[in-house]
Amino acid sequence: MKRILKYTLVALAALLLLPAAFLWGLYLTADMQQPVMIIDTAAYRVTDHGGYTSCHGSFLRRNAHGVWELYTAGSPDESGAAAGALTAALMRYQEEVFVDQIRKFVPSDGYLRLLRGMILIFNRNLGQHVPEEYRREIYARSLYCSHDFDAIGTPYERQLNYHAAHDIGHAMSQYMLVGCSSFAAWGGMSADGGLIVGRNFDFYMGDDFARNRIVTFCRPQAGYPFASIGWAGMVGVLSGMNTEGLTVTINAAKGPLPLSSATPISILAREILQHAATIGEALAIAQSRDTFVSESLLIASARDAEAAIIEKTPRKTVLYRSGGEQIVCTNHYQSEEFADDRHNRENIAMTDSPYRFARLEELMAANAPLDVPEAVAMLRDQRGAGGIDIGVGNDCSVNQSIAHHSVVFRPGELKMWVSTAPWQGGAYVCYDLGAVMRNPDPAAELYDKAQEIPADTAYLTHDYPRLMAYREYGSRLREAMEKGEAADERLPEAFARTNPGNFHTWKLLGEYYLARGDKARAAQSFDRASEAAVPRADEREAIEKLKSECEP
Q: Residue 544 sits in which domain range?
């Protein structure tokens, strides 16, 4: 019996140790393919000229609306190092905001180190899926990153992983980190027949994360010059246009959670923007890459005089054309090839994507033929289907007041209009990509003030203040619930007044009253929530379940 017990314990130990040894082996053999390169950082000195800073042929300035403008040129090493030197403070701020979000879930340094190990194992082969020119640029920028965050990786590891973290956020679209909306019109659906593209990039990591958006004008060593909108440290593309009149915007779709590393979507979008001039060329690049997650890439091409959507999963790449002179893209696939896809069917049935899609089609019909001011008005729209009032910040609306950025492109004219804070409420400033690339003068304003779309004064004077109050009051209610305490007696009524059209208002009030044992008021609140526009089937089910808890 002793011998049997001994062998049993040895076998159990082996069963426990083998997975640990396997994981340890994966950790030790992880290779992020850090480029072998030497950069003399002392040679990349930043010069302050008063209104802008410059370094090694690149420059950084902030326009009158608070949007940062970065111009880079040269090899990946040169442009990366110059951009890193110029944006070092912005990269530190962006990383601090990002890590603060992580620390809300992982407050311990020990757990952060464990998280680093798990990320390294998951992304152990990430480097081989990122073209060397982009790894070199990322490495050059990382030389100017802070070492305050080394608990979660070296600067190069972190910057490379942040591009993958963006994809993980997209993969978690069911948790409403993303809810992007985009559209394009041409021919008879456009005011002058030329292509017009609009998009809201609703990737939400908190208001601070979007505070320092950067419009980057890049003249790469190889490929087409381009402009894109992102944040410090991001070499990938989220929304952009090149000098051939090709635009790329990305919209998250639903698919299986990634099990191993592949090419981040923003890196694929960068490769397309830098090396494609037509929809066919963009499709060929997309087909050549395996990706982390499922995504729709809306591609508009001045050469082709139309727009199409590349619908991509880790296993399949499909080109979807609308068959007309307009196209709408939210967060589900539209092609026949994905009609029976389980994840896509679930996405259509369970999320707000079809609701926003239908609203965009209504707006396209109402505003056709489309021009730039009307495209901006569509991107600012907060109403539900049929124009009903669904409150502010509603998941159903095209404008959810969470956008990192919003932009309108005119590919044939090489012009783009970029939103300014707050969200889509500020002015949309116009950049002429051709003019900027012909004469990148940092001493002058890079945007064309004469073509600026004015701020939305109605939103700023009425909706914005009540939205901020709504979010503050909601935060105080949640805090009281977490502590098991009663909120100020005037708070629930004040909260309800700020945003009565949004179902979230009544759902949260119902949860608060239920937590306080007031089932009558809770039931009334859940009834009000059910009567409002509830975009997601899982939300509707959750409300019904909560309401059942109010029964005597």
A: 462-548
Orientation angle between helical segments 537-548 and 519-531, nearest 10 degrees: 160
Beta-strand runs (E) in 202-294: 214-220, 226-230, 239-242, 246-252
3-state secondary structure of 451: strand
Nearest to 502 by CA among 391, 387, 351: 391
CATH number for position 520: 1.25.40
**Is 278 a domain residue?**
no
273 and 246 in contact (C-beta within 8 Å)? yes
Domain for residue 480, yes or no? yes
**Strands 214-220 and 68-74, bridge-based pairing:** parallel
Look at the chain and count its residues.
552
Q: Is residue 257 in a domain?
A: no
Question: What angle (nearest 5°) sits at the alpha carbon of residue 455, between those of residues 449 and 461?
Answer: 155
Nearest to 241 by CA among 415, 406, 383, 123: 415
* Number of structural domains found in the chain: 1
pLDDT digits (tens, 9 = 90+) for 329-353: 999 999 999 999 999 999 999 889 9
* CA-wise closest residue to 66 among 470, 455, 469: 455
Angle subtended at Cα 229 by Cα 374 and Cα 404, rounded to the nearest 5 degrees: 70
pTM for this entry: 0.91
- Inside any domain, residue 474: yes
- pLDDT tens by residue, 350-389: 889 999 999 999 999 999 999 999 999 999 999 999 999 9
Of all residues in the chain, what percent are helix, strand and coil, respectively (each to 5)?
Answer: 45, 20, 35
250: Cβ contacts below 8 Å, ≥ 6 apart = 180, 237, 238, 239, 265, 266, 269, 295, 296, 297, 298
- Asked whether the beta carbons of 491 and 470 are under 8 A apart, the reply is no
Cβ neighbours, 10 Å, residue 139: 25
